[in-house]
Design brief:
Structural class: alpha/beta
Number of strands: 7
Strand order of the largest sheet: 3-4-5-2-1-7-6
Order of helices and strands: HEHEHEHEEHEEHH
CATH class: Alpha Beta
Distance between the termini: 62 Å
Strand content: 15-25%
Radius of gyration: 21 Å
Helix content: 40-55%
Shape: globular
CATH topology: Beta Polymerase, domain 2
Length: 185
């Protein structure tokens, strides 16, 4: 169980990883984890819809006390049948909002997105897949919602800056042949 002092995001991610849930962080949190300066209020994840993963996900959601945000007074918990679909499950947990997404963009599910995810260790024992910026930008363009289009310039600048930093890394090599004892150097 997460420590009480953890941030809401860390607590949700720690719980999901402790239950070995297969998921990819997408949306604003994905961008922030890769250096974008954005404000976001929920955690969006695309989850694997494999039956064994859904069982682990349901156990994690139980620990998180997750229920639908639409009618909070009813405290309706998601069922396996809800999680099997490509739809969006907008939940509230004891640590804050969690959006479980079966698919994003034009029908991109977990298996479609996994090869474009980067693996990040956020804390000891908390390693997560995060959708890479290039693919996140593509999905935002496909969706073309007002909020998606508004963040595109920030995401594009962040991607460009990360490429610049990557390209600026210089390999250090010796200048010239190594000296040898015989040559007097």
């Amino acid at each position: 169980m997460p420590a009480e002092s953890e941030t809401s995001l860390a607590a949700i991610l720690r719980t999901l990883t402790a239950h070995r849930v297969e998921f990819i962080v997408v949306g604003g949190v994905s961008a922030v984890l890769q250096g974008a300066s954005l404000v976001t209020f929920d955690l969006d994840v695309v989850h694997s819809r494999a039956p064994e993963n859904l069982q682990r996900l349901l156990a994690a959601l139980g620990e998180l006390d997750a229920h639908y945000r639409a009618q909070p007074e009813r405290r309706l918990a998601p069922a396996k049948s809800h999680l099997e679909t490509g739809g969006h499950q907008l939940l509230m947990t004891r640590y804050g909002p969690l959006d479980l997404l079966g698919e994003i963009g034009s029908g991109h599910g977990y298996d479609d997105l996994l090869h474009d995810a980067v693996d990040l260790e956020l804390a000891p024992g908390v390693r997560v897949h995060v959708l890479g910026l290039r693919r996140l930008i593509e999905v935002k363009r496909e969706t073309a919602g007002e909020k998606d289009l508004a963040v595109l310039p920030v995401l594009e600048r962040t991607l460009e800056e990360s490429r610049r930093v990557r390209d600026a890394k210089v390999e250090v090599r010796p200048c010239g042949p190594p000296s040898s004892p015989r040559s007097g150097r």
